[in-house]
Amino acid sequence: MTITLSQQAFDELFHEMVEPSQHPDPDDELDVVYKYPRRLGQGYWRRIELRQGLELIVGNVQMRTRMIIIQPEQEHELLEYHFHFSGEHHDKYRTVNGGEYSFLGSGLDPKQTSYCSDQNSFLEISIYMQPKLLYSFAANPEGQLPQALQPWIRPSHQTYYCRCGTATPAMRTVAKQIIQCPYQGITKRLYLEGKALELMGLLVAQEIEIKDGNNHLHTLKPDVVERIYHARDILLKRLNNPPSFMELSRAVGLNDYLLKQGFRQVFGTTAFNYLHHYRLEQARELLETGDLKVSEIANIVGFVSHSYFATAFKKKFGLCPKQYQMQQKKSFQR
Q1: Rounded CA separation 188/194 (Å)
Q2: Is the Cβ–Cβ distance between 267 and 92 less than 8 Å?
């Protein structure tokens, strides 16, 4: 079974069905565990407000149904760090698996679709920080952030900064210490606040190393990043006739190895996996209009085999294209 929800509908459903189930720490009323809606899965979210502007959430959920959330364009105010012990997250711009992390800055959160498999069992920690808290730690006397961190804070009309990567051993150690925190009360709060800031500190250190060029495995020079974005644009413009990887590397002036590794670093997945999911996202949007046949949509987004398109679409969204189109028509008629 697949449930397709708008972001607003998901938020409303979640707030209706989720009830604070317990305070695991009797000495901390800001430490609350919420049961996950049974209609969607089994598990919990644990939310701890560590201080004003800093929040920790631990999620441990086994999904029962495949879920698709359609998110509108909106302002993204907080800095977010997500560490995934297990499970996976997919949306238009990110694919994050167990042992990996994603970081999102403030700015514009573009319209996109995220989805979660009914076989997905995930354990993750998330840290949410207000930008002003970052400034209190990292800004110089003139109120400016280090150059390496300035992309983290963007205006509301500019797409937020996003970076995904494999967690370092130090990150994994701190994340595990958060999950296994042995304390209660004020000791617990001080311990977890310290660990949350330590994780952010490790991320800051990595960011500075990347920008300074000290991390040879992860560093991408600005002109290389521009070429990688150009490669992405070429792929998206040529949905029906994408270039081979060698053609793409020649078109942007990068060797195939650097383009392959750099594309994964910038976008969190391979170039052609990115293209594959983008095609399916475009197909979903066209199916929602209801004006075109499924075969026409498959051709428009570049699938030569209609049966392969149907299989790939069902794998991603849980429904065959025609079923999805009919579902959208019924939803619109309501």
Answers
A1: 10
A2: no
Pairwise CA distance, residues 42 & 120, whole Å: 11
Nearest Cα neighbor of 166 from 233, 238, 264, 241 is 264
**pLDDT by position in tens, the chain (length 334):** 678 888 888 777 766 655 556 788 888 989 999 888 887 888 888 999 999 999 999 999 998 887 888 888 899 999 999 999 888 776 655 677 788 898 999 999 988 877 777 767 889 999 999 999 999 999 999 999 998 899 999 999 998 998 888 788 788 889 999 999 989 999 999 999 999 999 999 999 888 877 765 444 456 787 888 899 899 889 988 888 899 999 999 999 999 889 998 888 887 778 888 899 889 888 988 888 777 899 999 999 999 899 999 999 988 877 899 988 887 776 545 4
Overall fold of domain 273-333: Arc Repressor Mutant, subunit A (1.10.10)
For residue 332, count other CB atoms closer than 10 A to its CB.
9
The burial class, CB within 10 Å (0-12 / 13-18 / 19+), for 290 is: exposed
Minimal CA–CA distance to 231: which of 216, 220, 247?
A: 247
Does the 2-212 domain belong in CATH 2.60.120.10?
yes
Any idea where the domains of the chain sit in the sequence? 2-212, 222-268, 273-333
Is residue 42 within a helix (H) or strand (E), and if so which, with residue range? strand 41-51
